[in-house]
Amino acid sequence: MFEVFEKYLREKAGLDAEEIKAVQAVSIEKKIRKRQYLLQQGDVCHYNCFVVKGCLRMYTVGDDGTEHMLRFAVETWWISDRESYNNESPSNCNIDALENCEVILIDKLDFVHLLTSIPKLKDFIDRLMARSYDAIQHRVIGAISYTVEERYHHFMKRFPDIFYRIPLYMIASYLGVSRETLSRIRSQSVHK
Questions:
Q1: If pLDDT is split at 50, 70 and 90, which confidence band does 57 have?
Q2: Quick one: which of 159, 183, 15, 38 has its CA closest to 105?
Q3: Which GO terms describe its molecular function (predicted)?
Q4: What is the mean pLDDT of residues 141-161?
Q5: CA-to-CA distance for 187 and 175, rounded, in angstroms?
Q6: Closest Cα partner for 5 from 16, 18, 20, 17?
């Protein structure tokens, strides 16, 4: 399992063998069954999670029981509740597995130590966080200014590898539309 993470760190962050060894020393390999929680609302998020295999989702549940999808994560993506992680506060979110998953977890204290002792890793994570912020800002702009059709096409274009791995109702929730509306848009797109 760690081999995938090692390859990722070598290619993306340029880590050498000694730096990889330091990361491996604090990495926790974990398998998560489909529908199993990685994080439940009310718990504190203590880990950065790298997805080796599978698909996870992060979501909140409204007072009426409606699930609101915030994000998805597949192979070589990271996922955690940043607010809970940064503030050591109870999470407002759930993270669970849509498929059987394999992940690498790194505890916050260990991660902070890695970032201070491996400058290349810190630079890489800083770039990754900046891209994450850009994506969140783009999603907010899309939510307030794009039509439903534009949001749908943007999602398909941006996430072609995961589009067919996620149930339609979850994609609808992510896009902020009803399942029926999304079905209509998909149908119209196929006929064009």
A1: very high
A2: 38
A3: kinase activity
A4: 88
A5: 16
A6: 20
